[in-house]
Amino acid sequence: MTDDAAQGPGFSLADVAREGLIEPSGTGQVAHDGSGRVDLSFTVHSLAEDGAEVPPAQRGVRVPPGVTVFDAASWNGIAIDSTCGGHGTCHKCRIRIDSDGPEVPITRHDVKTFSSEQLADGWRLGCLVQATRNLAVEVPPLTTRPKAATVGIGRQVILRPALQKRYVELSEATLADQRTDLVRLTDAIDDLELTADLHVLRRLSTVLREADFKVTAVILDEALVDVEPGDTTAARYAIAFDLGTTTVVGTLIDVGTGTPLAVASSLNQQQPFGGDVITRISATMMDDEALGRLQAAAGATLADLAQRVCREAGVDPAHVYEVAVAGNATMTALALGIDPEPLGVAPFVMTAAQPPSVLAGDIGLDLHPRARAFFFPALGAYVGGDIVSGMLASGMDRDKRTRLFIDVGTNCEIVLSDGETILSTAAPAGPAFEGGAIRCGMRAADGAIETIKLDAHAEGEDPAVTLGVIGDVEAKGLCGSGLVDAVAELVRVGLLDDTGRLIPEDAAKEVAPALADRLAKVGEERVFVLHRPSPTSEPAECVYLSQRDVRELQFAKAAISTGWSLLLEELGLEQRDVQQVLLAGSFGSYLSPASAVRIGLVPKVSVLRIVAAGNVAGEGAKMALLSVRERAGALALLEEVSYVELSDRADFNDTFVEQLSF
Amino acid sequence: MTDDAAQGPGFSLADVAREGLIEPSGTGQVAHDGSGRVDLSFTVHSLAEDGAEVPPAQRGVRVPPGVTVFDAASWNGIAIDSTCGGHGTCHKCRIRIDSDGPEVPITRHDVKTFSSEQLADGWRLGCLVQATRNLAVEVPPLTTRPKAATVGIGRQVILRPALQKRYVELSEATLADQRTDLVRLTDAIDDLELTADLHVLRRLSTVLREADFKVTAVILDEALVDVEPGDTTAARYAIAFDLGTTTVVGTLIDVGTGTPLAVASSLNQQQPFGGDVITRISATMMDDEALGRLQAAAGATLADLAQRVCREAGVDPAHVYEVAVAGNATMTALALGIDPEPLGVAPFVMTAAQPPSVLAGDIGLDLHPRARAFFFPALGAYVGGDIVSGMLASGMDRDKRTRLFIDVGTNCEIVLSDGETILSTAAPAGPAFEGGAIRCGMRAADGAIETIKLDAHAEGEDPAVTLGVIGDVEAKGLCGSGLVDAVAELVRVGLLDDTGRLIPEDAAKEVAPALADRLAKVGEERVFVLHRPSPTSEPAECVYLSQRDVRELQFAKAAISTGWSLLLEELGLEQRDVQQVLLAGSFGSYLSPASAVRIGLVPKVSVLRIVAAGNVAGEGAKMALLSVRERAGALALLEEVSYVELSDRADFNDTFVEQLSF
User: Which pLDDT band, with edges at 50, 70 and 90, does B36 fall under?
Assistant: First the structure.
């Protein structure tokens, strides 16, 4: 690992954690004047195992203005003492501000915590100091060792889950001490300002007395959601859901350690209503009962996964107190039973960007009866909570590099950040990348060609076509990444021209003698044969790429590249300015970066700058469960990220046509 | 009415409103140094109907420290502009602070509202200025005329109900304006920071579109609870419940005008479980299902009343959005389904002092599906929400006189305020005042003797005994007020001695010749005959007061007078210092002040200082519905009022024995 102390200001721990993904050198540090962000320079004191002081570490952090110093540190893996999670109640997050500017305001909590000498010396509670300008911050040694987990794209997350459990042993009431049961309990947990709802109060007096006043308080943020007899602090679980249109993934985690205990995935049970969001929205428009049935199907999918992960890990579902759900705007609306119709028709309006906090039972889950479900907010009808979650996991808002985030799918979401401004948009790519509308297309399952290498001049034993097939079985079709590879390779060897036309057979024999015999016809359409089951197979019996398939891919990639082109233009940037391209989702993991660059799906940058980010939506959901700070960061994205609607732009068509060519 | 402008500082509008109840003169102004309260001196500017300025009015107000200036004004009937109800969002409650002390802090809302010149000149938002010391406050003329209602004991309440309705006509979405439906709505109501729960969001998009974006937002505090098509602003109703152990009263009010539209009362359907709280608590201890049945009975009682008042007023129950419930701690626990057992056994502990806000549906009411139920908080297991509500209605915390509040019943609640400190306690008076344990006792119903006048020396046509009988029918028994009158009159004429013993017949003939023949025996017990159905009736067939009845009353009144004696002692006061005695509840309305003084039920003060306060619990519930300020005042009582537990005091027994005599 890099020596943190050696990092200059402006380079965050999050960057360090992402080190493996950063292009080693030579990308150059783009200079930012920080006008839209503030720089915090942390001096972090710590003690060695034997209690001796060690030299302080220097760390620079760049955050949006208004973020608290505590948040800024927490987001960047710098631990500051706290038990209340930054609510201003525990008075433990002591820091010292060393500032040239005007004095940092003193709050009533500061007055309670510090002497007037300390206040004059710059001591404040970190959760109450807003970073509105550059500050130098000293962090004293921790009194307790914080736990952290690595989540997302190498993000180091300090564990501050909304879910807390506290075991307390209370004194019994007497005539001289008639405090109410609730006050007796909350007095014992005085670093939080707890509230209790009717359900807890109905059980409270009975549980306290049956358990001899030795109980475990179950807390979500500052809401007391249950009081359990005895010490149950070890059982504190949550489930992160990536609620995809096609596939749903659930991960059971222990929020006390950050450890994932079990993962399960399944097809979304809404599939019978249609494969994509538009067909499912249409279903609700044609049948009044469809919304209820789609909601039930989403609930059943989530409930099934919850049951499976709990069973696999041997966890009682009643000990799961929270779930986080990352889904696109339509999946979110359907899971919550909110009418999705306005999402499906222009002008594409959401009911609300931030779904309210609901009970897990409201979305069909049978966990703890007061378990809560957090849904990620959406930036727009087609840049949903899954993308916000992915942005969180990839630290899109906490990095000063120019980064492009692309989630390729039927609807493709694109986010561009230049370290100051973050823009997002959606591009309707259509089903090509999922194998839809492609003659030999199929999902990325066993038998799907996922990689292709062509050798135009292969001779003798050397193969002219090298296929990578999922499951190492005989090729049965072509999935999205194989499609991109096929087209990219055909362009490279010259069998496809810039306009996307397969060149005439005569010319083919010249430019690619080893491959020319694979040009054939199926019906009236020209095709390129990728796999011939037997030497005598007719072209129609083969796995092939057709001229029309190429056109489908061209439209899909043009939609996407139009999206990022216009975003780059908005920020006055060129393709070469992009320092990192994050390809999100499973498709991104299989895509060949070289092919993606070659066909123009991503900007023309070094393939080293192209990173498969994996299931970032699911990772962001885990982060939201493990840290209230990260969750606040996700909500803050609603303010930080601008949504750009492309469909009503005058320059959309011109750019699209430009982008059609390879 | 008194000329407000002529009132000196320290005399509040609330006092003026209570004028009819204040002893006209001669009580003297008790001097307070204000150590526990702060004095605000308001200069209220206003305009005449024609827009001309009129001379400003001066008003002094005394409040607990920490109350906002806005609240302090509102509580005392001084109107300051506001639409958000004091949440800091509408930026309308402009005031100017003229202070000799340190400058009043400037908040970020102040900065948004005022120029720096205005800030330097002392202008602030009144809802954000805490009165921590004496201040002079200038209030500019109102831009809208506030509505007020007279509620409680002559309290002038400025209408600021938690329930608001706002009719809005919204523009439809376009590709250039893709704001979410929720933001579109909340942008149109930007003086409030609205939140929406899942139930509203599920309906929002459909309602907006079906109603052509012309809708009425239904708001409770800052929660959006519904969006109704068209303009429904006129239909905004709430129900105030006085949930008594015996009798339950419901009042339907229009919160837009403060007008009560219908009142209904009924017996509490929990009666079959026992007449008092202890027997009902016992029922839950002996039968696991009793709590559920008691809860259902409370709900059924409330639901029946709700239905009746809505029907009587022709109001759709779906237009009732809030209810307030004032009940003792046991009634509150049972209505909410909270186990009351710890209330019934020493050390008498509540689950929580402040019940959480719940849905009206949670307590069995079938009103608007998201209607909310507010329960008054309790000060102790036996000084419940009904008393807090009564204190609110009688302004116990906003008066600098020394006042004693007594709610006489099986459990008697006593509150004493000297204008600085407020103490409360409970005294177990037993059932005597409700006619229980009294030989000829009965409830205050037709046939009950409620007033008695004796003439020891009546001659000729003059009656020796004059009875007031409820319903003007033949006397059948003796209710509580009659019992007090009977004992008081017997003491006055000398037939009862100081110890409560009926004097010997010989002596009786001397001191009360016209009454001596009414002394008789029923069995072995001496009695005084109050009503003889016919000249030949045996004593046992008559309505009489027995020697044991007198003892019962002695114990009951001693319990009560021990309570207020010890509270007076706590504050270092004598009986004569009490400037007002408020007798709450229906019993208080019928009690003869002279008799109450004579038997020592209340301190020995001029009868002019004894005021029947009526159903103050119900009045307080109305106030809580009509004003969020008043509701906050009720919650503040939890901090302001100390509960004194008498049962474990060393001096309790001695005082009790002292108080037994007349």
Answer: low
Q: Which two tokens stand for residue B420?
A: 């600085």
DSSP letters for A137-186? EEEPPPSSPPPEEEETTTEEEE-B-SEEEEEEEPPPPBTTB---HHHHHH
**Residues within 8 A of B (CB atoms), A 130-149 only:** none
Q: Does A107 touch chain B (CB under 8 A)?
A: no
Asked if A86 and A57 count as a contact pair (C-beta separation under 8 A), the reply is no
Q: Which residue has the tokens 């985690």?
A: A253
| Other Cβ atoms closer than 10 A to B471 | 10
Local structure of residue B420 (DSSP, 8 states): S
CA distance A195 to chain B (A): 9
Alpha-carbon gap, residue B365 to B131, rounded angstroms: 40
Note whether A171 contacts B: Cβ–Cβ < 8 A: no
Question: Residue B118 and residue B411: Cα distance in Å, rounded?
Answer: 55
Instruction: Inform me whether the C-beta atom of residue A643 falls under 8 Å from chain B C-beta atoms.
Output: yes
**Assigned token pair, A363:** 């979305």
Tell me which residue in A336, A341, A352 faces B180 most closely, judged by beta carbons.
A352
Q: Per the confidence metrics, is the pTM higher than 0.95?
A: no
**pLDDT tens digits, residue range A533-579?**
999 999 999 999 999 999 999 999 999 999 999 999 999 999 999 99
pLDDT of residue A36: 66
Kind and range of the H or E run holding A214 = strand A214-220
Amino acid at B579: Q
Give the residue carrying structure tokens 């504190």. A236
More confident residue, B615 or A501: A501
Task: Report d(CA A394, CA A408) in Å as an integer.
Answer: 16
Q: Cα-flanking dihedrals φ and ψ of residue B481, to 5°?
A: -70, -35
What are the tokens at A467? 């296929």
Task: Tell me the pLDDT tens digit for each residue of B91-111.
Answer: 888 999 986 777 888 888 888
**What does the alpha-carbon distance between residue A458 and residue A514 come to, in Å, rounded to a whole number?**
6
Residues B632, B641: Cα–Cα separation, whole Å:
14
| SS3 category, B378 | coil
DSSP B50-96: TS-EEEEEEEEEEE-TT-BHHHHHHHTT-----SSSSSS-S---EEE
The C-alpha atoms of residue A149 and residue A159 are separated, in whole angstroms, by: 7
Q: How far apart are CA A461 and CA A329, in angstroms?
A: 52
Cα–Cα distances in angstroms (integers) from residue B291 to residues A148, A227, A289, A432, B269, in the given order: 46, 20, 39, 62, 13
**Per-residue model confidence (pLDDT) at position A615:** 85
- Residues B127-140 as b/e (b if ≥16 CB within 10 A, e otherwise) read bbbbbeebbbbbbb
Alpha-carbon gap, residue B398 to B152, rounded angstroms:
13
Nearest CA in chain A to B378: A180
What are the chain B neighbours of A198 within 8 Å (beta carbons)? 336-338, 355-356, 358, 362
How are the residues of chain A apportioned to helix, strand and coil, as percentages rounded to the nearest 5?
35, 25, 40
How do residues B373-427 score in pLDDT, each as one tens digit? 999 999 999 999 999 999 999 998 888 899 999 998 888 999 999 988 999 999 9
* Residue B5 backbone zone (phi > 0: left; psi -120 to 50: alpha; other: beta): alpha
Percent of chain B with pLDDT over 90: 65
First to last CA, chain A: 40
With tokens 């727009």, the residue in question is A380
DSSP state, residue B104: P
CB distance A201–B356 less than 8 Å? yes
What's the gap between Cα B300 and its chain centre?
Answer: 23
| Inter-chain residue contact A178 with B380, CB threshold 8 Å | yes
Give dist(CA A150, CA A159) in Å, integer: 10
